Hints:
Elements: E1 7-10, H1 12-20, H2 27-30, H3 34-38, E2 44-49, H4 52-58, H5 64-74, E3 79-83, H6 96-108, E4 111-116, H7 127-134, E5 141-147, H8 156-168, E6 173-177, H9 185-198, E7 203-206, H10 214-223, E8 228-231, H11 245-252, H12 263-284, H13 296-299, H14 303-315, H15 322-335, H16 345-359, H17 368-374, H18 387-393, H19 415-424, E9 427-428, H20 432-440, H21 442-451, E10 458-459
Parallel strand pairs: 1-2, 1-8, 2-3, 3-4, 4-5, 5-6, 6-7, 7-8
Antiparallel strand pairs: 9-10
Helix pairs in contact: 1-14, 6-7, 6-20, 8-9, 9-10, 15-16, 19-20, 20-21
Amino acid sequence: MATNPVKITETVLRDGHQSLVATRMRISDMLPQLEALDSIGYNALEAWGGATFDTCLRFLDEDPWERLDTLKAHLKTPIQMLLRGQNLLGYNHYSNDVVEKFVQAASKHGIGVFRIFDALNDVRNLKVAINAALNCPEKPHVQGCLVYTISPVHTNEKFVELAKELQGMGCHSVCIKDMSGLLEPYVAEDLVKKLKAALDIPIELHTHCTSGFGHATYLKAVEAGVDIIDCALAPFSSDTSQPCTETMVAALEGTERDTGLDRQAMTPISKHFLNVKKRIIEEFGLKGYFDINPNVLDFQIPGGMLSNLANQLKEAGMEDKYQDLLDEMPRVRKDAGYPPLVTPSSQIVGTMATFNVISGERYKMVPNEFKDLVRGKFGRTPVKVSKEFLTTTLKIDEKDIIEDCSIEDAKGKTFEQFKAELIEKGYLNPTDEDVLSYASFPQVAEEFFQKHYNKITAYKR
Length: 461
Ligand code: CO
């Protein structure tokens, strides 16, 4: 009997398909196996947030709130969501009341674990979401993230300091979020040991196999005492996704950290999801797999974005520019003050790098989002961006450089303003959830509402 079993959070319903098939799994793909998944004994099932909200509305003709209700009706295992702090699930900072309403609604609809991160590891961007989750009457588990990255300024000691801050803010656990699979096995061992020594709350590790370290990194982290690891069932594991659940369960069998989970019970579930994966690849014309690439250590693109980028370039008939783009990413990232590359900073840096490669001249066309990132609108960058780069290369006005951004500087519309906008457009009496969908993705949500006008209680026609 294991003395200190490792817990597993299963990601097949969120990160697994986000990393390998552009987040195209439907609720109907999940339904047949929800009871089986529920009976495994996972720490949590990650099934909501991240890119799922956007793809539900945009590509799958599903209401993300209804999806959550359906999941909740079939699952007793806590449902985990990934939330981008003050960004929620969108790409901009929202006002505090929108963040609070979103968190409250997600909790009410059944989120049991809030995993909350900020792309710049700026804790000021996490405060509102963390507090809102801590105050929900349903008492969800609140997890703060260290967004893991490598750069000349990121050290394990600094990550431990950040983790202590998260514990101090009331988080129930801390997750090392290694979205691009950059965490090397022995570095993971050192980081987990230091975190275990400094913190009183559980430590979870989330990685991707993008560079090929995944399973080895988990093994060293487990030896160092990590409490929870994120894994995906075989068909949605490996490559740019999480290490494989069955493999990790088998690797730990008979050791003092045996998970105690029944590997055989996973076989029929995996069989189902293999067919789901095949169907999605065919339906959406996706690639569905990505070779392990140790060069990710240099270009640092998260799994989910890599699959999107490859498919976008394929659609545009520009597959030959792929390597140029991967080479340009680290250069742009350095110019931008070494932000960790995770949504939305990954998209912002990725788009900037794409523009540089396509136009053949660096910083000829500069999207506003990139200017916002480097001038400090989203919070502090790990390294201060040089003034010359800001004013000469990007031609940003000196008065627009934000020396020390607080959430207030980036204030967006309030919940009531979003609601009034919807009513103005003729959608009378929208539910809070409709308003939150609209606040997150205005255009996409409106198109969805038009198709499903009966969803809005009194649609004016
Ligand atoms: Co991930």
